[in-house]
Amino acid sequence: MKSTFATLPQVAHREPVRIRLRQCARTFAGRQGQHTALHPLDLAVEPGETLVLLGPSGCGKTTTLRIISGLEQPDAGGEVWFGDEQVTHLPIEKRDVGMVFQNYALFPNMNVAANIGYGLKIRGYSAEVIRQRTGEMVDMVHLQGLEQRAIHELSGGQKQRVALARAMAVQPRVLLFDEPLAALDAKLRDRLRIDIGQLLRQLGITAVYVTHDQAEAMALGDRIAVMEKGRIAQLGTPQQIYHQPATAFVADFIGTVNRFAILGRGQGSLQVTGGGLPSDYQGDASLLYCRPEDVRICTDDEPVAVRGRVIQRFFLGQSQRLLVDTGAAEPLQVDSSSRQHWQVGDAISLSVPADALFAITGNQTQPHAGEKAESAAGSST
Amino acid sequence: MSTSLSVRSAGVMHWRFVLQLIFTLAVCAFMIVPVLMSVLAGLTENYLVGLSSGLTTRWIAEVWGLYADSIWLSIYLALACLGCTLLLGVPAAYGLLKCRKRWAAIIEELLLMPVAIPGLATALALLLAYGQFHGFRGSWLFILVGHVLFTLPFMIRPVLAVMQAIDVVRLEEAASSLGAGAIQRFFTVILPNCTSGILAGALMVITLSVGEFNITWMLHTPLTKTLPVGLADSYASMRLEIGSAYTLIFLLMILPLLTLIQWFGQWAARRASRSVQ
Ligand SMILES: Nc1ncnc2c1ncn2[C@@H]1O[C@H](COP(=O)(O)OP(=O)(O)OP(=O)(O)O)[C@@H](O)[C@H]1O
Ligand SMILES: [Mg+2]
Q1: What are the pLDDT digits (tens) for B194-225?
Q2: What is the CATH T-level fold of the domain A4-248, as seen in this structure?
Q3: d(CA B25, ligand 2 centre) in Å
Q4: What SUPFAM superfamilies is this protein classified in (chain A) (predicted)?
Q5: Min distance A62 CA to chain B CA atoms (Å)
Q6: What is the pLDDT of residues A299-346, one digit of tens each?
Q7: Which residues of A touch B (CB under 8 A)?
Q8: pLDDT at A3
Q9: Residue B186 in contact with residue B155, Cβ under 8 Å?
Q10: Which CATH superfamily includes the segment(s) B66-276?
Q11: Is domain A256-367 annotated with CATH 2.160.10.10?
């Protein structure tokens, strides 16, 4: 093992491994009895894939990640597999995983180089190998010149780069991220997100990435698992999650949606509050959804359109978002070019292309999500 | 307008100066002057006559002749006590950090008991429980037990505080994800990052152990007498000059000891940060 390391100058990795969770649940004993953080969960992360766990605070993302890492044990009956090896009862130090934490967790008693080389030192590599490998890692995360710095002399972004390099220096089987960018400011977050994305693609390592930021999830995930209250609400590619959300919860959590309650069906059109939408939708859903960017502002003489009044306008730079009152309980949210001049009170006609309208079918499997859709249906009529 | 403002600010300055002066004088009056008086008393030929009777080291020599054993015992005891509190206290702090909040609170309170209740009561309890084991009762180990009981929380508290401040649990998780086992984690991550807390604890333990009187006075035998007990003896039974000379020796012993610990702590911290590079 040592010799292969010594002759491995480039950042090549071993065969990526598949992660599988089988019936992994986690219950915590709280003051008021048992608290289920995670319902029995089956999940597979394909070799080389980046899976993003996305969801609101407290939905069980960290718990899932910690079960994969070995920092947490699943309740009896749960199994964790890395490839063909069952690792359920292997402690984290034997699992060969790399972890990046939200608050960096760098060792304050060591400088940058020592932090990066720590895992190699623990594994007993020679000083020469450690020095060389650390150098490669420093280059990889663009920290040249900072090797001898103390940790408290680094910026947040630099700290997270060190943490990243430290996790990757030992060439783990799996990389795990727990909201690594949450503590950084927006600009830096974007920058580091791009860097991490590139690295993960280059390395082709199996990775699980926890975040509550949907933009981050979209950018980094090969697939996204949207979690809600200890369950996976939907698992799919970013496109699937965004364009075909399985539940109202997912639709709401990922971006913004407009709801249309169907009041009646005409020839090639649907009757909704404020007018009509061109669509030959035949399904039996009573609610259809669309994204704000898919709403088209049309001329007043368009035959089938929803008409309303602009009640609020948010200038966002690259676009502007208009809130349009159509008589329904919730105003429609419409994105338009930021160069158009809309004033509060203006009359406006809107249309949605038929293929941008979607129904949500998965409500039955998620009782709580169903409740939400119902209440939404009630409020929009 | 501007003049009245400057007058007022001058007034504030004035008051601040007066307060500082009063504070400084109070510190001098109650902390420095008594010590100096005592030191001086230990060096004068005859305290009742005053400095005009001349300066001498006679009293110091006399004290040394009478109480050298106590002085050495005190030092050994303090170092042994430091060793015990390090061995017990650092892992205990770590245990408290890891165990559930409610339990941690209860255990911490129990540990504080020997500090909260009078030393005499602690000593009495120890005598009741173990007084019949004569070999043990007569040895300095018996006093050591009392000192460790009394000083342990003063080691645990600062170490625990540091561990909480630097989020040792998270650091340990990071180390374990990099392949470090429990022992490696303890020596490479936990210990080096807690040196400031350990140092603070060590200073407290040494100071408290050397100066401890209540418990020691109850537990001591004629052969196991520590510095403060000896001091009480000499104040009670001998000339004032001898007691004062005793204080002087006490100061001469404890000050280098504390400096040494402080220096050692800094050296250890520097070495730790260098060795990992
Ligand atoms: N050690 C623990 N003891 C008791 N309850 C816990 C523990 N860890 C997590 N929980 C509970 O389990 C649930 C899921 O927690 P988890 O940390 O996985 O959420 P999360 O999705 O990571 O949230 P966040 O985005 O806020 O980090 C929460 O309700 C939390 O209170
Ligand atoms: Mg979390």
Answers
A1: 988 998 899 889 989 988 888 888 888 887 88
A2: Rossmann fold (3.40.50)
A3: 55
A4: MOP-like (SSF50331), P-loop containing nucleoside triphosphate hydrolases (SSF52540)
A5: 14
A6: 888 888 899 999 999 998 888 999 999 988 889 999 998 888 888 999
A7: 69, 71, 91-94, 96-99, 101, 103, 105-111, 113-114, 118-119, 122-123, 148, 150, 163, 166-167, 170, 176
A8: 35
A9: no
A10: MetI-like (1.10.3720.10)
A11: no
Tell whether B194 is within 8 A of chain A (Cβ): no
Domain ranges of chain A: 4-248, 256-367
Closest CA to A141 of A120, A123, A157: A157
Contacts of B192 in chain A (CB under 8 A): 109
ipTM of the complex: 0.80
Torsion angle of alpha carbons A214, A220, A224, A229, nearest 10°? -50
> A108 contacts in B (CB within 8 Å)?
166, 193
Q: Are strands A306-315 and A296-298 parallel, antiparallel or unpaired?
A: unpaired
Residue with tokens 């050495």: B72
- Please indicate, yes or no, whether the overall pTM of this predicted structure exceeds 0.90: no
Q: Where in chain B is the domain with CATH 1.10.3720.10?
A: 66-276
- Give the Cα separation of B137 and B124 in Å (integer): 12
